[in-house]
Amino acid sequence: MNKKFIDFNPDVLLKDLGIGDMPDEDKEEVLGTLMAYMQNVIFETVVSNLSDEQLREFKESVDKQPEDLEEKIMKITANVPGLSEKIEQAVASELASFKAARAHLN
């Protein structure tokens, strides 16, 4: 599966957040932190929307091959109605919060 939940143009994202003019070194650090945070948001959204059986299967799968986490999330969202939309909503909500916080600082 090639689709990713967090698939964006980094320069556009940083500009949208109002921090597009920062030095490249700082951009990399911010993007790394932002991606790690968003991956956590996605993981928490997935876990909170699984049945006990789905959660057990997901945990066993991740324990066996943790490096394929995004692929596993994609597979499980295909089997849980509405989960993909909940993930997209959670990510969009967090990005909106970042934008609002940045706007408040200006």
How would you briefly describe this protein structure?
This protein has 106 residues and is an all-alpha fold.
Annotate the secondary structure layout.
Layout: H1 10-16, H2 24-48, H3 52-64, H4 69-79, H5 83-105
Helix pairs in contact: 2-5, 3-4
Task: Walk me through this protein's architecture.
The chain has one domain. The protein has five helices and no strands. It has helices at residues 10-16, 24-48, 52-64, 69-79, 83-105. Helix 2 (24-48) packs across helix 5.
Search tags:
single chain, 106 residues, mainly alpha
**Residue ranges: pLDDT <50 for 5 or more in a row?**
none
Output the structural class: mainly alpha
Q: Major sheet, described briefly? A: none
Whole-Å distance between the termini?
40 Å
- Overall, the morphology is elongated
* Strand portion: under 5%
What is the overall pLDDT average?
84
Please give the share of residues in helix.
over 70%
- Tally of individual domains: 1
Cα Rg: 16 Å
Query: In total, how many beta strands?
Result: 0
Please give the count of helices.
5
Compressed to H and E, one letter per element, the order equals HHHHH
